[in-house]
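Predict the 3D structure for this chain.
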Amino acid sequence: MVAQSLFKWRHFLPEIILLNVRWYCRYPLSYRNLEEMMADRGVEVDHSTIHRWVLSYAPELDKRIRPHLNPTNDSWRVDETYIEVKGGWKYLYRAVDSIGNTLDFMLSAKRDGKAAARFFRKVLKATHTQTPRVITVDKNAAYPVAVEALKADETLAAETKLRQSKYLNNIIEQDHRNIKRLTKPMMGFGSFNTARRTLRGIEAMSMIRKGQVKGISKGDSVSQAKFIEELFGISA
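Done. Predicted structure below.
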């Protein structure tokens, strides 16, 4: 989809739209924070409009960065964290490799063997991941059930080792903190779909921030912003 049609009828420059989406998914800001920040720059935009931008373009950002991600290694760290949706808790399954690079993520209404197995299948289908040599998890009883099911249908190799160790899973538990830091100002999501779409943008920006994009260095915010504009076809 070319930029002209992707941003049609938005009444704002694509650069302004992507700036707001990028900032919201990268920093602990509320929609009203961004509304004020735009007003300081002479741009009048309602916080509800920024909300619609995020829901539209955050999933698109996640989809578009996938072909550009560096390969991850074969040592997985898997865990789930809590996300508030409509006053209740849902479960964000997340996986990183042994050096902290994001493998994939999945928001789930349930925390059981079927959900864990569905998440493992999603990670295995990602283009930047490889079949795991070892999967490190905590003591959640759902993970052995999921791994056995995947080995039984040969989705996972029989040689794949499941290692239950809370200490060795510190890498992903630390990685959760960034997600929680960003979602805290949001004070919970109004619907499961809103949470799912927003989290796709947050996780995408996290991967970019970590330096997982080919040719874009970790900490190079200028190149990261330019890369996102090029993804959406608006770079000069």
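The chain has two domains: 3-68+191-231, 75-179.
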